[in-house]
Each structure stands twice: as C-alpha cells, then as structure tokens.
Design brief:
five-stranded antiparallel sheet; mainly beta; flat; 14 strands
C-alpha cells in the first residue's frame, strides 16, 4: 500500500472510530434515541478516537497535536498534526423518525496532506453509532469543499483537479447527491454535476 493509500485508510477508520470511543451514553429512551437528542452532543468540544493516533480532544472544532515515535497523538512536543470538525448538520437521513448528525472532518498528520470525509451518526439504545460514511480525499484531489442538506439528502461539493492544477488548488468541483436507499447511503449518480468552481 502506498503512503497516500495508508493515510487515506487511516483517515477513513479514524473518523469512524469516534463512534466507538468519544461519546458518553445518553438517557435511555428505548431502542432508539428520541428525536433531537443527537443535538445534545457537543460535536465541536469532545474527544474523537483517530484510529492509530488514538484520542484527540477538539476544542471549538479544532485540535493540534504532536505525533510520538509510535504514531500516537500526544500533547507534548511540536505540533505536527491537526484535526478539524465542522459544525454539524442535522436531518433524519435514514427516515426512521430519529434525527441524525452529519459530521465533516479533516485530519492532517503533517506535510501537505489534508484528508476529509463525512460521517453520519445516530443514537440507538442511548449509544452513539455510525450510520454511514461518505468518502473524501486530499484537498484538491477529491477533498470535500462543502456539505449541505436538501431534506434527507446530503449534498456534497467535491474538489476535482484539472490538468495543470496543484493539489492545493483544484479549479473544478463535482456536486453529488447522497440518499438513503435499501438500508444504505448511496450516491444518486444520475444527479451528479461537475465543472463548477469549488466553493
């Protein structure tokens, strides 16, 4: 696996891991959390478990950390990594009557790589669980520029490199529409649009 592929895999697993280690159980309301409870989680001031890096506490949606020799995020040392979480969006993505949280995150472990993705969380049996994910990429090369909601659909503007673009500065974008169908979140490929300048 290339270094890029390894880091991308780390990011995908990293953001997924916050479903397992970051949220305290909430009041029990049966098999599923009551609508609105997911809003009670302070998504921008909490600890996320970033795969091999381990726990990282974000404050106001951001964390800087050093990386130890054994590839763990630590407070001591020169900051070489960062993690950013955008303000959450809320909608009943899967149509079960329970509101879900749409969380966009970007992790960097130093250098020029900034890897994004989107994770969707819900509450079940008073526990925070990951419902679905939308993959991202490294800044211009598939990185997520903007996320919005259209009812229960997740709208994603993705950076797309054109010939001659630097990885930092994509000149194009692709708009995607993601919908819950048959028990999973899938892109409505027929609705995909491209060629617009990124936001």
């Amino acid at each position: 696996m290339t270094a890029y592929g390894a880091l991308t895999a780390c990011v995908v697993a990293a953001v997924a891991a916050c479903a397992h280690g970051g949220a305290a159980p909430l009041a029990n309301h049966g098999s599923r959390g009551a609508t609105g409870e997911v809003r009670a989680i302070d998504w921008q001031n909490r600890t996320y478990v970033l795969d091999e890096l381990g726990p990282v506490k974000v404050t106001n949606g951001h964390a800087d950390f050093a990386i130890s020799d054994d590839n763990k995020a630590v407070d001591l040392g020169a900051a070489s990594g960062s993690y950013r979480v955008d303000p959450p969006l809320f909608a009943d993505i899967d149509g079960d009557g329970v509101e879900d949280a749409v969380i966009s995150g970007v992790v960097s472990t130093g250098g020029t790589g900034h890897f994004s993705d989107i994770r969707i969380y819900t509450l079940r049996a008073a526990k925070l669980v990951e419902l679905a994910a939308i993959p991202g990429g490294d800044r211009g090369d598939g990185g997520i520029a903007h996320v919005a909601l259209d009812g229960r659909a997740v709208i994603v503007d993705r950076n797309v490199l054109a010939e001659g673009d630097g990885i930092c500065c994509a000149s194009g974008s692709q708009r995607e529409r993601w919908l819950w169908r048959n028990g999973e979140l899938v892109e409505d490929v027929a609705a995909r649009r491209g060629g617009d300048a990124p936001h």
